[in-house]
Amino acid sequence: MTRNLLAPLAAPQGALRIAARSLPTTGPWLSLVIPTFKERHNLEPLVEQLTQLLDRRLGGNYELIVVDDDSPDGTWELGLQLTRRYPALRVMRRQAESGLSSAVIRGWQVADGQILGVIDADLQHPPEILLQLLAKMQHGTDLALASRHVEGGGVSEWSLLRRTLSRGAQILGLVVLPEVVGRVSDPMSGYFLVRREAIAGPMLNPRGYKILLEVLGRGHIQHIAEVGYVFQERTVGESKVSWRHYLDYLQHLLRLRLHRRLPKRRLSLPLRRFCQFALVGFSGLLVDYSVFYLLFSQWGVGLTTSNVLSAEVAILNNFLWNDAWTFADLSQRQRGWQCRLQRWLKFNLICLAGLVLNTLIVNLLFNLFGVNAYLAKLVAIALVTLWNFGVNLKLNWRVTNVQK
Ligand code: GDD
Ligand code: MN
After folding, report:
1. Quick count: other Cβ atoms within 10 Å of Cβ 305?
2. Which of 6, 100, 181, 298 has its CA 20 to 30 A from that of 282?
3. Of 41, 62, 40, 42, whose CA–CA distance to 51 is shortest?
4. Burial class of residue 96 (count of CB atoms within 10 Å of its CB; 0-12, 13-18, 19+)
5. Atom of ligand 1 nearest to the CA of 67
């Protein structure tokens, strides 16, 4: 019996990872996790129903993993007793950790199956739907999801408030994370199967209530199938959802948003490069002006000296940004400090020529035409930026330098 009592893998806290399994494996094909907290009265009927279904469909080729957070009603103890009658049942008792999502991930971590799944313990997820989900997985889909919002799906007697909250959460998800939440009709579902390879590898964050978001947001899910189901009313026990879970959900969405960054609309390479170069040039402009202001206006340094010095500091600024960003793809293929130093010297040389040009223009405008010193610099910088971009692209970060 204790053979079936599992301990959570690794130390608690932090992000968790699901290990890949090499094929073919000796373990069961399906590992279905049943997260429980105070579900003593639901566990036995659920395990009985699942066992009947799965024995018929999969023979012995499955395991049921109850992950219980040390429920005060002794759910895990009951589970352990049930393992005598149901050999496919394994039970994890967690004492150092709690929470629905982490329970599911902890269960998957000790699972042996190629197909990982989750189902609520309270019989609100009809067990027979599992057969349809299994069929989808057998047809090679990456994720098979039980949904309340496709044909055949629905909820039982939900109050208007509950429906509104549920839909509101979904809409919020669509706004914050459209490319994840929009992939399924029921992103709140906690009843699904997923292929192990699709989620093995990336760190999964175990906080939050909605494990499906984590799977969709961080896994490599290509093909998704959905099966409609009616969310049943609870007959025994109570829901553990509280207001805190809504805050958790919002935090979860934002965390995934940051993790994934916004989808980029890609510019064509030359145009993108020029925009980056121009942006770097703009940052150089700020640097240039700041230093120039200090030297010329604050400390009374002469016009030409101030101009040369401020431009030189800006050149250094621009080189670093261009090397790490604008021309990153090219500089990455010409690594090493010597190459970098070479580029820096060339950059200086090109800019030195630009500086001569710059000084000439500033002097010409300021002394001859009486243009304001700052405006004169602006014109000079604009012209010299054009010069710098063209020559640097052709001669400095040029692709022909690349060593294969
Ligand atoms: N181990 C563990 N730890 N299990 C938990 C915890 C926890 O902290 N909190 C809840 N559970 C278990 C419950 O015992 C139950 O088996 C399952 O997770 C779902 O919890 P409920 O509290 O019954 O959630 P619900 O019915 O309100 O919410 C469900 O909403 C979705 C549809 O809106 C979710 O759980 C989804 O699975 C479901 O599809
Ligand atoms: Mn429930």
Report:
1. 11
2. 298
3. 62
4. exposed
5. 1
Q: Alpha carbon of 152 to those of 139, 175, 228, 246: distances in Å?
A: 21, 27, 5, 27
Residues of the chain whose pLDDT is less than 70? 1-3, 9-15, 22-25, 262-268, 399-404
Give the model's pLDDT for residue 14: 57
The ligand 1 atom nearest the CA atom of 37: 14
Mutate which of 185, 232, 240, 246 for ligand 1 pocket (most atoms within 8 A of beta carbon): 240
Angstrom distance (rounded) from CA 223 to CA 227: 14
**In this structure, what DSSP letter does residue 366 have?**
I
Q: Whose CA is nearest to atom 6 of ligand 1?
A: 100
Residue-by-residue DSSP string for 314-340: HHHHHHHHIIIIITHHHHHTS-SHHHH
CB of 124 within 6 A of ligand 1: the answer is yes
For residue 45, give Cα distances in angstroms to 30, 50, 78, 154, 264.
20, 9, 12, 23, 49
Rounded CA-CA distance 349/355 in Å is 9
127 in ligand 1 pocket by Cβ < 6 Å? no
Nearest alpha carbon to residue 113 among 91, 88, 135: 88
**Does 13-258 carry CATH code 3.90.550.10?**
yes
Domain ranges in the chain are 13-258, 272-395
* Ligand 2 ion: Cβ-proximal residues, 5 Å cutoff: 122, 124
In this prediction, residue 83 carries a pLDDT of 95
